[in-house]
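note to self — DONT lose this again. spent like an hour looking for the file last time. sequence + predicted structure for the chain T wanted, 569 res
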Amino acid sequence: MRLDCYTMSARRLIPALALTLLLGVSGPAARAAGPDYVLPPPAAQQLVRMLGLDGPSPDGLQLQVAIDKDRAHITASRDGAEVATLTLVHPSKAPADALRVAGFAVLPSEDPGEAGAREALLARLRAAGREVTWTELRPPPAPADPAEQDRTHRQIDVALYQVARGRPEQARQTLAALPGDLPTGTAVRLAMAWRIAGDQDRAEATLAALTDMDPAQKLAAAAIRGAEDLDVEASLEGGSPRDICDRVAVSDILARLDLAEPAMRLARAARAKNPDCPRAWEAELHRLLEAERLDDAAALAREAVARLPGDDQLTSLAASALSAHGDYREAVPLLEAVARRHPEQEGVMRVLLSAMLRDTAWRETYRDALRAKLAANPDDVLAQFLLGIIAHYENRFAESNALLEPIEPQMGHQSRFHIYRAMNDFNLGKVDEALARLDAAAEKPLPDPDVFYCRAEILRDTRRAQALDDLRRYRVNPEGATLSNPAKEARVERMMRDLEACLADGRPKCESEWEHPRLTHGEAIPGSVEPPAPPPAPAVEHDPLPWVFGGALLAALAGLVLHLRRRRG
């Protein structure tokens, strides 16, 4: 039986610094509110020179200087008695009419002290002919909101998907709508997206605004700027194990820029430096899958699961690699365990279904095990969901719907749930219901590509232009090698050519390698009941209905379990 449909991240400069000269008087306690400017350590020596404390006092005054963050206190004494004081602050911290001198504003004093002593202090500052140096304090950035970071990365993914669909201008509009103040890692990824979308100037401008890149981000920036000599090894030097784990994210950026060899070197070097970093294993697994080195990917997947069995994100990708290698019976238990812990994740469910369904000889054994689980626990939603999908592939469409319908509240967030419900309905002759469900699924912010594949089957004789475009949308495979199906992709190419011919000559029935209705175009199972035929297709070609063009790039499977916030700061 064919299984092609739907299988498939300001230091406080002078903390309470008090420098006292001569008598060592300390400054007052720091204010509760942080200043906008502070006096750095060199300012103390500047004041010493400006006040003439490094030489004899011409007016007989003894001076003390104390610096406390954003202000300086100067005390003048004569014969051991205090005669005058000055409190100096940054001009932004004083009234507009306050006296300005030597880069300071002078705060008013309730006690003017000895006549002339205060003026003598001011005169010394004026005579210096220079100003003190201030350091501007920028408030520390607010902690990144993980949800906001996810939204930003999802929009970048949308833009990359739009480029893949041949819509770079739309991609640039998507990128232009993103906020400007982004964490460094996110900004570097944005610059990458600008380059891929064809706007190198915006990529350069995004990078130029960054001043705190780590060595790996600098490597990514060099790649985005088109540098050919990339020192991958240097990007990992001097980093702690945690730094290494953060920096390996740049491997994905290099891969996006078609720099497969340095991307692989970075992933491999990071794993060698920190073999306890799950993200390093993931990066190397992705690179092996992209290179279609499936034997190596499967071997590394087994090693990864043995070394770091508690990381669900890594386990998911490792199981995906095993599935790509054809080791479905190894992959399914791993994926089922992760899916039970993270039922909200769509990517895990997609790979679980793919692995579960591809080994047809073993599927019956797995079906029986699921039935036993459901019998022991009638509330086992996952077992009921998987049994409903297996029933679909056994052409028991009404039974499949009977299993799936009661768990829609728990599983309705999964696009695969709606795909199977829709194709059950289509096979049972309920075309309008099937199409309505797929149309709704296509408008999700992160639509499943197989929504478009299945909708194309339904529309092949009624809205052929839309069916053809849906197959094109399916063909843009966001996951790349992680969930690719070369045989299906080749078949879709043939289906598109057939649709183009049907669209050109207007024949009433477009024959091709369709999968549905299953008992007509797919492989029937002995003893299955022939469903009612769908209503005849109208001969008139209709214009395609509008739909949302925001089909987002589904994050690679490694990012679908627990989003990588570590790479987004």
